Amino acid sequence: MSEAPRKSKISASRRLALKTKMLKMAAVMLEKDKEEKKQEREATLSERVPPLQLSGLSLQDLQTLCKDLHHKIDVVDEDRYDIEAKVSKNSKEIENLSQKIIELKGKMKRPALKRVKISADAMLGALLGAKVKESVDFKVNLKTVKKEEEKKEEVTDWRKNVEAMSGMEGRKKLFDAGQ
Questions:
Q1: 42-92: pLDDT as tens digits
Q2: What contacts 170, CB < 8 A, 6 or more positions away?
Q3: What string of H, E and C letters represents the secondary structure of 85-149?
């Protein structure tokens, strides 16, 4: 039972048109988000930092204004430092937890497999399915190899042949025997 590859219900041109529409909508939404963030930032800044009116202030008033601004800057810096410390602590904790998750995934226990005695025919049937119905004889497909006996030279007493093989005549006999 092999299934034919499923055809897409949407044509390629229709799919392309939908993708382009989605990308255009995403671009418009991204622009809206940027504009909203910009307006929110401006509103927050205008709320926290009112415009300075320095004209008509005496030296004493300017000094108190500077002291107030320095105090506000110190408070904001302390808050920023506290927030940065919390963020770094949380990021380290997240990193440690993700490392623990990776370690736990790596130590997954594998179940102990049991040995099953099965014949070659049954194994082929399980692997190949119903394709192999008759039993396969593997010995039929093996090649037969004939062993040739190695030629063994007779071991003779070397003392008997010493006089016969000595000199040029002995070398000629070896040369003739080799051909």
A1: 999 888 777 777 788 888 988 998 999 899 999 999 999 999 999 999 999
A2: 164
A3: HHHHHHHHHHHHHHHHHHHHHHCCCCCCCCCCCCCHHHHHHHHHHHHCCCCCCHHHHCCCCCCCC
Rounded Cα distance, 176 and 151, in Å: 19
**DSSP per residue, 16-70:** HHHHHHHHHHHHHHHHHHHHHHHHHHHHHHHHHSPPP--TT--HHHHHHHHHHHH
3-state secondary structure of 164: helix
Tokens of 159: 């003392």
| pTM of structure | 0.36
Q: 144 pLDDT exceeds 70?
A: yes
138: Cβ–Cβ under 8 A, 6 or more apart, which residues? Answer: 120
Instruction: Look up tokens 């499923």; give the residue.
Output: 6
- CA distances from residue 49 to 60, 79, 148, 176 in whole angstroms, order as listed: 21, 16, 105, 119
Distances (CA, A) of 144 to 136, 140, 149: 18, 10, 16
